[in-house]
Amino acid sequence: MKIITFSLHTQQPLLATSFQGDPNSDVSYSFIPGSMIRGAIIGRYMKQHQLSELDLSNDAVKHLFFDAKSTRYLNAYLLSQKKRRTLPVPRSWFKDKDAELRDESPEIRVYDFSVNRTDELETSKFVGEGFWTEEGGCVRFYKEKRRINIHNQRDRKQGRSTPIKRDPQTKQLKGEGEIFRYEAIDAGQRFQAVILCQEADADFLKKLLYKSEDFWLGGSQSAGYGHTKISDLNCHDTWDEVSIPIEDRIDRDSFTITLLSDMILRDEWGQYTVIPPSAQHQVPVPLIEELKKFLGVEPQPKISFTTNTLVGGFNRKWGLPLPQVPALAAGSVFVFENISLNLEQIQQLETQGIGERRVEGFGRIIVNWLEESYFCAKQPDTTRNNQPTLKQEVSRTLAAEMAERLLHQKLEIALQKQMGYPGIEGEIKNSQLSRLLLVARQALTTGDCDLVLSLLDNLPDNARGQFERAKIGENKDSLKQKLDEWLRDPMSWSWISNPQDLTVKVAEIERSITDEFAIQNKLAEKYTLRLIMAVTKKAMKEKI
Fold first, then answer.
1. Are strands 325-328 and 308-311 parallel, antiparallel or unpaired?
2. Tell me: the pLDDT tens digits for 439-483?
3. Where do the DSSP E strands lie in 421-527?
């Protein structure tokens, strides 16, 4: 088979309506469905041949657009910064419940429960839907950008909405004016589309795509939606969707199937099959039967990580939406007992796919894909070298204020995070903690850490002993020792794990916790005192 790849650059918001949101809103998929790409190419085919409708009895039309054994139009997924096609996040990937990818924590650890169900995580949580790719030996998560537009229904003749009134004869409401919302894929993003086809059809499809770089997709095209541009059109003899050779995926401890797109299955009675919410970690019987056809043996299921979704579509010839169909969601992972596989079996299984509507990109799978039990994940690198230059002093002042507020926001988050660690433990009276709190609050107005140090250095023997015996933090350090460490060298920011990450840049204005701005405003001293106050308040409340 030949593989045609091309990029789609959204020039306008794109509305690929899914079954999300309320009745008065249309919410787009996070990708461009293969059915939508096929529909646009059919439109070009009909225009080129001056057809009003397709001749479904024509063999060429059948294998070009309706035969999954000949041609398949895969979903167009986001392109990474390295111009690689991203893929849906596997649903077997979990993280700590509190771990989030933010500016102050640009990296998190992710665990693959399909490889090893670790007990290291006390509270686990699915990493979330989106896309990912491997860059520089690290997993990077990507998320499409969206745009929300508000519209109101209007009368096409008058060009405006009209009051809603009840017809005195028919008693029906007439008029326009209903408010509705479109949540669409935003302009300025790139997606990579893939077409798998027979060698004899590759040149013909390439000519249809070359016909014009302007490609119109999705709904509401007359209202400023759906304009994309085709670029980077290439034809390949071989193509690996996951960049891991099949030879490296044959010998594994278990047989694993991962869905790269939604999968539609029917049981022996013709009913659509999904996983009931109450039957988690099960594998649908139709999937086992389909695998048995390819492998010759019946795979024995071990565990699964999956969810269900609803899929549909729109038939432009009918002018009606397609029936809603339940399906297994992309990213679902099914683990079976180990099976002896050869290269031809895996290649055939991945090339053909499983389930219905495979010509539209459904049923794409990958065999024995993931093998690492845990790894580090990051967000895309958003560093920009072409920061705008601020020429006016007013702009520079505004940018400086923005950077300073963002820096304060980061420090507040770091302070809140510190409160999640073990606090003060041991036999220390609330009267001593209250005295420490009072002096720290007094010192906060000027940022004078020496005022609190003076208190600690002149404590009576009994009070000193309480501060020395009390423990704080995971390492159970002496409270007196830890307070001395914080107060004598606040500029070290020793209570923050990665102080080098606390840097903010707005345009060309940069603010950090060690620059002149921080020194003049005594940020280190004031936040150290606020930390002491917060830790003290927490300990006093716990003792009540």
1. antiparallel
2. 999 999 888 999 989 988 888 888 888 888 888 887 788 888 888
3. 424-425, 471-472, 477-478, 503-506, 509-512
